[in-house]
């Protein structure tokens, strides 16, 4: 399949990319790893007039932990997360996320920024970033903007609050603290497929074992990535035990809005959200208390 | 529509040409350069039949535009054979009967090459994960795994430096 016609320009800096986006407006699309965009173009589901290639911008591929924050350059490839000891040792939830994105060959080019900016409810990073309370950095003509992840996605699929002349440049994730832990659990039919359902959970416990912070994000069970707010709130101020875990799982399942499709009936998927929430919270608890 | 002049090194040979923005790398390689060893399977970034190395990274060439390859080092299946001598991977696929129809084989071997460049002595699990983006529909994975193990052993035994462009792996 051949994409429709478009122009192509390679930006050499963030400023140049932003200037090009500003100049070309809504017709412009950013080409990062291209592993979602190029298939969309081939199917002619997207028809931009110009692609701004950001792969030649130096300094957008990095993983750095400083002052309690993990900084992920928007152009960081999924394979970098797969292989970085920092991620494997300190951020198992991110390791569990990157290693189930598509397949290893796709992950050589696919970027973390693209996985989020594409705002596909089936993508894996949005749920994890929601659970972790990440922030997204957007650079536009007027400078930099910090967007909390829950304000980044909208109520519509494939839509974000990024302005047409803004470039996503970095994702910031809180570094683990004493008593924190998280997990991403994805149910998929086969390697490379989108999730039947996926659940990311991240919790922080105080010295008494009570939950002080809880994040739960859901993958591919609605029009958009879903933040299971009621489930999060239900966990606060209590110890994480079978009763509270199952209550949160009930609320997470209630927050999901799956549709019946080739990956299963809606009822089954909602049930899976419950099961996966239980598993993710148990794993998060084990990690928060020094297990795993 | 814009056209672009690109120069690309493939299997050590320099190629130049004019490409449309929308020309996919695999189409340029096959239709323009007539390097037809690289196959097109699914056209949906799923099957991996079109896998080549781009600056040493295994890459689905149906999911990159030709213009993006400008200035890069590429390697296709045609680059495996050197000086009339087949590569240990080719030998392994032959010896272990790792192909039936052969459609997935070029992509399978290029993904394996990148894997062995990064990890010369992979476990069976690492091999299976490594090739999980390449589909074989003759259900030949058992023998494909054996072929890659064969190549890994042979490459290590002979301390042969695997041919390839750029740096290994990602």
Observed structural traits:
heterodimer; A: 292 residues; alpha+beta; Uridine Diphospho-n-acetylenolpyruvylglucosamine Reductase, domain 2; Uridine Diphospho-n-acetylenolpyruvylglucosamine Reductase, domain 3; Enolase-like, domain 1; 3 domains; five-stranded antiparallel β-sheet; four-stranded antiparallel β-sheet; 12 helices; 12 strands; B: 170 residues; Ubiquitin-like (UB roll); DNA polymerase, domain 1; 2 domains; five-stranded mixed β-sheet; 5 helices; 5 strands; 32% helix; disordered C terminus
User: How many helical stretches of chain B?
Assistant: 5
Architecture of the largest domain in chain B, according to CATH? Roll
SS field, number of helical segments of chain A: 12
Query: How would you describe the shape of chain A?
Result: globular
| Radius of gyration based on Cα positions of chain A | 19 Å
User: Major beta sheet of chain B, specifics?
Assistant: 5 strands, mixed
The total strand number of chain B stands at 5
CATH class of the largest domain in chain A: Alpha Beta
Binned strand content of chain A? 15-25%
Structural class of chain B: alpha+beta
Tell me what the structure shows.
The complex is a heterodimer of chains A (292) and B (170). Chain A is of the alpha+beta class and 292 residues long. Chain A has three domains: 7-53, Uridine Diphospho-n-acetylenolpyruvylglucosamine Reductase, domain 2; 63-174, Uridine Diphospho-n-acetylenolpyruvylglucosamine Reductase, domain 3; 180-288, CO dehydrogenase flavoprotein, C-terminal domain (Enolase-like, domain 1, 2-Layer Sandwich). Chain A is built from twelve helices and twelve strands. Chain A has a five-stranded antiparallel sheet with strand order 4-5-8-6-7. A four-stranded antiparallel sheet of chain A has the order 9-10-11-12, sandwiched between helices. In chain A, helix 10 packs antiparallel against helix 11 and helix 11 (242-255) crosses helix 12. Chain A is globular and about 55 Å long. The N and C termini of chain A lie far apart (46 Å). The mean pLDDT of chain A is 97. By secondary structure, chain B is an alpha+beta fold. Chain B has two domains: 7-78, Ubiquitin-like (UB roll), CATH 3.10.20.30; 88-157, DNA polymerase, domain 1, CATH 1.10.150. Chain B is 32% helix and 16% strand. Chain B has helices spanning 25-32, 88-95, 105-118, 124-130, 141-157; strands at 3-10, 13-20, 51-54, 57-60, 73-75. A five-stranded mixed sheet of chain B has the order 2-1-5-3-4, covered by helices on one side. In chain B, a hairpin with a 2-residue loop joins strand 1 (3-10) and strand 2 (13-20). The longest helix of chain B has 17 residues, at 141-157. At the A-B interface, helix 2, helix 3 and helix 6 of A face strand 4 of B.
């Amino acid at each position: 399949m051949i994409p429709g016609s478009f122009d192509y320009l390679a930006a050499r800096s963030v400023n140049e990319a932003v200037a090009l986006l500003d100049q070309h407006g809504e017709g412009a699309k950013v080409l990062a790893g291209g592993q979602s965009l190029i298939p969309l173009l081939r199917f002619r589901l997207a028809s931009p007039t110009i692609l701004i290639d950001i792969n030649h911008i130096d300094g957008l591929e990095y993983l750095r932990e400083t002052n309690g924050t993990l900084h992920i350059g928007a152009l960081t490839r999924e394979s970098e997360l797969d292989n970085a000891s920092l991620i494997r040792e300190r951020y198992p939830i991110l390791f569990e996320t990157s290693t189930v994105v598509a397949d290893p060959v796709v992950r050589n080019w696919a970027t973390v920024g693209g996985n989020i900016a594409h705002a596909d409810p089936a993508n894996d990073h949005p749920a994890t970033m929601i659970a972790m309370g990440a922030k997204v950095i957007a650079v536009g003509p007027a400078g930099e903007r910090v967007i909390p992840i829950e304000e980044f996605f909208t109520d519509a699929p494939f839509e974000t609050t990024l302005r047409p002349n803004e470039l996503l440049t970095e994702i910031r994730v809180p570094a683990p603290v004493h008593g924190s832990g998280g997990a991403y659990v994805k149910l998929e039919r086969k390697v490379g497929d989108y999730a039947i359902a996926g659940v990311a959970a991240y919790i922080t416990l105080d010295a008494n074992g009570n939950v002080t912070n809880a994040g739960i994000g859901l993958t591919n069970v609605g029009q958009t990535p879903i933040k299971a707010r009621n489930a999060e709130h239900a966990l606060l101020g209590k110890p994480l035990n079978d009763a509270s875990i199952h209550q949160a799982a009930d609320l997470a399942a209630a927050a999901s809005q799956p549709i019946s499709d080739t990956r299963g009936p809606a009822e089954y998927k909602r049930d899976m959200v419950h099961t996966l929430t239980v598993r993710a919270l148990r794993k998060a608890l084990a990690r928060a208390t020094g297990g795993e | 529509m814009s056209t672009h002049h690109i120069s690309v090194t493939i299997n050590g040979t320099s190629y130049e040409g004019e490409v449309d923005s929308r020309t996919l790398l695999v189409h340029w390689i096959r239709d323009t350069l007539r390097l037809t060893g690289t196959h097109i399977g699914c056209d949906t970034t799923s099957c991996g039949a079109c896998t080549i190395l781009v600056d040493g990274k295994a890459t689905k060439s149906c999911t990159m535009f030709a213009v993006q390859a400008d200035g890069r080092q590429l390697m296709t299946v045609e680059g495996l054979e050197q000086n009339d001598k087949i590569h240990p991977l080719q030998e392994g696929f032959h010896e272990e009967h790792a192909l039936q129809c052969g459609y997935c084989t070029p992509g399978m071997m290029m993904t394996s090459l990148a894997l062995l460049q990064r990890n010369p002595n992979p476990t069976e699990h690492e091999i299976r994960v490594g090739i999980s983006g390449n589909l074989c529909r003759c259900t030949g994975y058992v023998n494909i795994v054996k072929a890659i193990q064969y190549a890994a052993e042979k490459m290590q035994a002979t301390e042969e430096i695997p041919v390839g462009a750029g740096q290994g792996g990602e």
